Amino acid sequence: MWDNRCKIAVSGVGFSKATRTAEKPLAAHALEAVKEAVEDSGLKMSDIDGLATYPELPATGHAEVDGISIVSVNCMMAMLKLPNLTWHIQTGSVNIGGAVQQAVNALLAGVCKYAVVWRAMHNPKGTYQNLPGAYANGALQFTGPYGFGGPGQGMAVAYTRWLEKNNQMREKMATLAVTQRKHTQKNPLAYFYGTPLTREDYLNSRMVAYPFCLYDCDIPVQGACAIVLTAADRARDLKPTPAYLAGYGQRLHFEVAGRIGSLSSYMAGGSSSAKLTWERSGFTPKDVDVAQIYDGFSASVIYGLESYGFCKEGEALDFIQDGRIELDGDLPLNTFGGSLGTGRIHGLWHIIEGALQASGRAGARQVKDAKVSFVGASAPIVQGTTFIFVNEPY
Amino acid sequence: MSDWSKVTRPIPVPNEWTKPFWESAKNNVLALQRCQECKHFQHPPYATCVNCMSIDLKFEPVKSKGKIYAYTIMYHTGDKRFASAVPYASIIVELDEAPGALMAGNLLDAIYTEAKVGRRVEVVFQPLNDDFTLPQFRLAKD
Q1: Which of A15, A168, A249, B135 has the fewest beta carbons under 10 Å from its own?
Q2: Higher pLDDT, A96 or A264
Q3: Local structure of B107: helix, strand or coil
Q4: Residue A122 has pLDDT above 90, yes or no
């Protein structure tokens, strides 16, 4: 087990009001979320001495403009003018989970006391995933000319392989979409709060990239969320009940850029990250009371459930049936609605919900007696990280 | 059958690793990068052999038959220049001679519902302009 388990905790959390289009600049969303997370902790902004983010814009073919389409650490520093800042970073390899882990490491190293991590997501005008344009450069030269345009198609090809190799039916995914949308109705901050979804809606929905229909894809929004991380003994003195970090991991596998459709790369990515998390925390999948697993595309949940070890390869679509992922099921899943319910804010909301469930702060959607809370943030293949939060140190 | 006649495809921009692939394709030869030490074929091309870390890599012709490894049927396209072809099959092919090397393509000369994992395909060459020819796929006759 990890010597540092339960030494760091998530304290406050904060959100901006996500909108479908970019009505306010992205920097305003990030600022709103950060302010709320700091207030939720009961801290003053001047207490914050660490900053971390992953500022990528996943929409291809759009400019990255700081404050408009991304919110970098520099942008946040300019807005906050923190008098006591001692540490900051922005990460590149494993999405927002990597930034959270760097903040954990900085707190453990004692180079800051209260770190804020945010993820801000922009919804650009026009088509979200633009194909390369007239020319296909880099890895795109082998995919762009064939009409592969974005991560959705990359994940869709792996999904057909999974379905046909395992003799499975895409219709079973309706259970995930419908159950998560049900959870969404208990999350007033979610984009699809107030908009229920039926099995028929799912089955009659238009195709985007087979096997993905509209409801297999999260909707792009403009929004941000943020968390405050601090040492466990400091967290206990703050306003909210802390969620203690029992262990974390990151994917340790990468295949050459531009290689798409490889199912084994999802499995190797997810299992390498989860293995670290199980070993560091001392838990196994059977110990988990509630799970958040990244669902930017629905199939990501399949790869997550299987590669993290919740079920065997080829079984995930059966595993999610019969009420198992309901709030009172054996493995309540994506209890905040997931990205399919909240809109596309990448993995930080999954991490936040994992922490809220562990600390008993999930309100109407709180899972009873949730002690061990698992998070798979981002798709296992390229950007995957995993976390376990617990309600008390052990 | 998907109508590709109105589709303007993005033109590949070769780099130092990938140039021989496109030069061969222009001559209707499918050549993949092969490690001269461990004999592993790889695609997309890379700076090193991802199997044994050798940097002794050359492009060698491969037999143009293989199987559909994975596919998607595109109904919604980000690039409107592909919109006239929907629904169309974008496929990933594993060649018999290059296990583990995955090539993207479209399934040509067949209705998109013919795309299935495991189905036999063969390479056909589709000229893009005077300088570039795309390796593409159709269902194999055998």
Answers
A1: A168
A2: A96
A3: strand
A4: yes
Span between the terminal Cα atoms of chain A, in Å? 11
CB contact under 8 A, B75 and A60: no
N-to-C CA span, chain B:
21
Q: Are A54 and A98 in contact (CB under 8 A)?
A: yes
Give the bridge partners for A256, in sequence order: none
Residues in chain B whose Cβ is within 8 Å of chain A: 7, 9-15, 18, 42-44, 46, 50, 69-82, 85, 87-88, 90-92, 102-106, 116-118, 128, 134, 136
| pLDDT number for residue A132 | 64
Summarize pLDDT for A373-389 with one digit per residue, the tens.
Answer: 999 998 777 789 999 99
Tell me: the pLDDT tens digits for A55-107? 998 887 788 999 999 999 999 999 999 999 999 999 988 899 999 999 999 99
Interchain pair A134, B10: CB under 8 A: yes
- Residue A249's φ and ψ, nearest 5 degrees, are -155, 165
Return the residue of B nearest to A142 by Cα.
Answer: B104
Nearest CA-CA distance, residue B8 and chain A, Å: 8
Q: Are residues B34 and B58 in contact, defined by beta-carbon separation less than 8 angstroms?
A: yes
Q: In the sheet where A385-390 sits, what is the strand order?
A: A87-90, A50-53, A114-121, A223-231, A8-15, A243-250, A385-390, A372-377, A290-293
The interface predicted TM-score of the complex, written ipTM, equals 0.96
CA distance A124 to A57: 9
Gap between the Cα atoms of A188 and A194, Å rounded: 8
